[in-house]
Amino acid sequence: MKPLRFGFLSSIAIVCTALLIGCATTQTTTQNRESMLVASGFKVITPKTAKQQQKLQNLLPSKVTMIQKKGKTYYIFPDQARNVAYVGGPKQYRNYQQLRAENKLTREDLETAEMYQDAEMQWSLWGGGEGVWGPMGGPGPY
């Protein structure tokens, strides 16, 4: 009876954790993106005029936008909630893309590890391959 109760409680804990992570994902993703932009060399710019403020509000939220000004390329990420823009050039944008790729690989590694942990937990709930199911899932003694 105790293993069944442990499994049930563990399942509830996993579901609650998944819900909490899901709710925090949007905020964490934005903060993570802004941290990567700063680490990549983007500058934080606060609009000083009404015209600059309007330009900030016209940018797509949560998207890096490329603009050309006086023959130069700039990449801008708006944060309307904080009334700032993260601005960088091609070098900073390449650094940002590299950080995003590294972050994605790290996140995928974590998800894979969690998947294996979940699978291992389910396996142990069924007797770890021994007992009712026999060694390695074959027929076991009845």
Structural summary, described in words:
The chain has helices at residues 2-39, 50-58, 90-125, and strands at 43-45, 65-69, 72-79, 84-88. By secondary structure, it is an alpha+beta fold. The chain has a 4-stranded antiparallel sheet with strand order 1-4-3-2. α1 (2-39) packs antiparallel against α3. The chain is elongated, with a radius of gyration of 24 Å. The mean pLDDT is 75.
Features:
142 residues, alpha+beta, 3 helices, elongated
Shape: elongated
Strand arrangement in the largest pleated sheet: 1-4-3-2
Number of helices: 3
Measured between the Cα atoms of the first and last residue, the distance is: 19 Å
- The overall average pLDDT, rounded, is 75
Cα radius of gyration in angstroms: 24 Å
Main structural class: alpha+beta
Beta fraction of the residues?
5-15%
Main beta sheet strand tally, sense and closure: 4 strands, antiparallel
According to DSSP, the number of beta strands is 4
* Succession of helices and strands: HEHEEEH
Low-confidence stretches: none
Q: How helical, in percent, are the residues?
A: 55-70%
